[in-house]
Design brief:
By secondary structure, this protein is of the alpha/beta class. It has two domains: about 210 residues, Rossmann fold, CATH 3.40.50.2000; about 160 residues, Glycogen Phosphorylase B (Rossmann fold, 3-Layer(aba) Sandwich), CATH 3.40.50.2000. The protein is built from 16 helices and 15 strands. The strands form three sheets. The chain has a six-stranded mixed β-sheet with strand order 4-5-6-7-15-14, covered by helices on one side. Strands 10-9-8-11-12-13 form a six-stranded parallel β-sheet, with helices on both faces. Helix 5 crosses helix 7. The radius of gyration is 21 Å and the shape is globular. The C terminus is likely disordered.
Length: about 400
């Protein structure tokens, strides 16, 4: 299992590790150690092995990228795995090419197309060609939303089979429905990497406007500053607004459950090319209403007007308007929004759906069987659509 950080494997996919180990598989995980967590700490708890392979998430120097390919190739040649599972762009691309070179069954997960594929230009053209090399012979490719599937189809990235899964799913037991808090103070929460495309500027703009008009509101931020050109700017702005009483900043939080418990609503104004936002799934599972963008990877988690509100991307005014609509609700109405959100998670985003999808494909590979998939034609390519029973009934 290849990821870029501890979070990619053990926060969002530990249930897959546990299920594979329980079925008798030996699991080797690989990612970069760092502030998200350390692989050595997980090996005993999850009964797997860990091989650290450093990955630079932001830079793309050719020597570093080819070095990552070489390390993946060396790892796979040494371990001779029966299958390789990959998450995030660089792991999908270089892990896929290495697996193809060694003729090892490969199962990439498109956790969002990322900025490189989303924006037209030379980087997009290069990445499309690399993906064509990486996934063409993959046993199956997992998509977290239909938009990303359509992007691959529309850009000629061919593969054997595509499976749509509900993001990374959410652990319904780990994120239970909490009692809804008293009406005042009314707390809003932003939980994400602090970067432009996650909508931090829109959140701060709206907080500044709403706090002055509705003094009983609080605007909380959990997350770390992404290592980019605007990180220092955002640090200064958040520090200044915190000193003025507009914001409350909590830094990176390892366990978000108490923050979901204390808040009335989670806000994510992201226009980043997400797979499906894990923070939104967690919040909804905890029975908290959501305000987020009408954008792939965010809108999937919300039924507009029922479990939260959708806003236009990059629109601070629209965000402020939706916050005011939320404030105008009674506390019982807000609570009911959260309850409906929890039901949505139970019906559509249970993480067991994702685990079962992986086990189905890996067991079919192990037994040499080919299950007859349901097919959806899209751009000349056939895609497998995994529809869980609860979704089908709905």
């Amino acid at each position: 299992m290849l990821g870029n950080t501890y979070q990619a494997i053990f926060k969002h996919r530990s249930e897959i590790v546990e299920a594979l180990v329980s079925e008798g598989h030996e699991v080797i995980t690989s990612f970069s150690n760092g502030m998200m967590g350390y692989g050595e700490e997980a090996t005993g708890k999850y009964h797997c092995r860990f091989v650290e392979i450093p990955i630079s998430r932001r830079t793309a120097r050719i020597t570093q990228e080819l070095g990552l390919l070489r390390r993946y190739y060396t790892l796979m040649r040494r371990e001779k795995p029966d299958a390789v599972l990959a998450y995030t762009v660089k792991c999908d691309v270089w892990g896929g090419i290495a697996a193809r070179m060694l003729n090892i069954p490969f199962f990439p997960n498109i956790t969002g197309i990322g900025k490189g594929l989303d924006e037209k230009g030379i980087v997009q053209k290069i990445l499309i060609q690399l993906y064509k090399l990486a996934v063409r012979k993959a046993e199956a490719i997992f998509f977290q939303n239909p938009h990303d599937r359509d992007f691959f189809a529309g850009h000629g990235i061919k593969f054997k089979k595509g499976i749509i899964i509900p993001g990374s799913g959410v652990n319904l037991d780990k994120y239970p429905p909490f009692d809804y808090p008293p009406e005042s103070p009314l707390r809003f929460l932003f939980n994400s990497r602090i970067m432009t495309a996650k909508g931090i500027e829109q959140y701060i703009d709206a907080a500044h406007f709403i706090k002055q008009k509705y003094p009983f509101t609080e605007f909380h931020i959990c997350g770390y500053f992404e290592d980019d050109a605007k990180a220092d700017f955002y640090r200064r702005v958040i520090k200044a607004e915190s000193e003025r009483g507009i914001l409350v900043y909590h830094d990176l939080v390892d366990d978000m459950r108490e923050y979901y418990r204390m808040c009335h609503c989670v806000i994510l104004p992201s226009y980043h090319p997400e797979g499906v936002s894990n923070s939104l799934l967690e919040a909804a599972s905890c029975a908290r209403p959501i305000i987020t963008t009408n954008h792939p990877g965010c809108s999937d988690a919300v039924d507009d007007g029922l479990t939260g509100f959708l806003i236009e991307p990059r629109n601070s005014r629209d965000l402020a308007d939706k916050i005011e609509r939320f404030i105008a609700l009674t506390n019982d109405e807000r609570k009911m929004m959260g309850i409906r959100g929890r039901r949505k998670m139970e019906n559509e985003f249970d993480r067991h759906i994702v685990v079962d999808a992986y086990l189905r494909e890996l067991n079919a590979l192990k037994e040499g069987k080919k299950f007859p998939p349901s097919r959806e034609k899209q751009g000349g390519i056939s895609f497998t659509v995994l529809t869980p029973p609860k979704m089908a009934a709905k």
